[in-house]
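For homework, think about our next protein:
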Amino acid sequence: MIQRRHLLGATALPLLATASRMARAQARKLVVSGSGGVVADANKSIYYTPYTAAKGVVIEHVPVEQQRMAQLEAMVRAGRTSWDAMEISASDYPLGVKKGLFEQIDYTKVDPQNALPAMARQQFGVGVAAYSELLVVRKDKMPAGKMIGSWADFWDSKTFPGPRALSARPQSNLEFALIADGVPIGKIYEVLATKGGQDRAFRKLDQIKPQIAKFWKTGAESVQLLSNGEVVFGTTFNGRVGALQKAGIPVEIVWAGGALHLSYIGIPKGARNMVDALDFIRFRTMDPVPMREYTARLSYPGFAPGLADGMPEAVARQLPTFPANASVQYAADAVFWADHLDKLQERWNEWMLK
């Protein structure tokens, strides 16, 4: 009997140790703040679930789009940062850096071989996706034999009648207005930096405002407006269009005059789980296999080495970085907006209330 008890005790010890390790692994949690809708769905199935299975780290997704930076700043200033990693838009990145809201990225953990391009290796964020904010049209709502192909067309409500949508923020909208008014895409920020250029953009927006049925606040809302037919033409992000097309909604991207952005993934200042955050960022930005699957679902390509290997041409042509698409877009200037946002946001808010 004593021998049997000893045997059971010896057997139980490694089992208890294993159970303890499993419990600890299951208790590990990584809180990631990011977009909602189809972007969140893709992240959960392609990145979060496989990462949890491989590492035992449960990922809690916090969907935040509007006021994300305001929430982050409030947490950081209070010393109670609850997010471990977060999506950072191109426009939010310089603002967050200026305010000291991000941790510095340790590239010896994320990209030790220096395989990412320089534009993706920022001090406080890793380039995770290239995306465009651009015009999308309902083909079934076009006048017979005509098709919108430019911002000038979007402003032409006589030739192309119908309700429209724009985002509820000044970024991009002021740029689109200047393009519609004849400013070359290479001169947008040079013009917009002047008082005369800003006046010109707002005058142009005055012309189209009566046709704007909705100023959308989230990416999910922007595509819902097109899906349910509430608007005929509207701006959205290119990666959300594929889901509409797969659902049978006859929409088409107008690449001309699109704003090409680069978004990042980073670590909020004061994050509690730096180790797992850096490891997840490595997985999210460096592994081409899940990124290829993600890009096939949402056309937001990252920079993982080998991403394009074996990618169908039909998929590649839907990417904002495809040469024919990139050549007719302009590079969104996040630094410009970091320097000018406060003043232009105030004027935008006043304009919205008119």
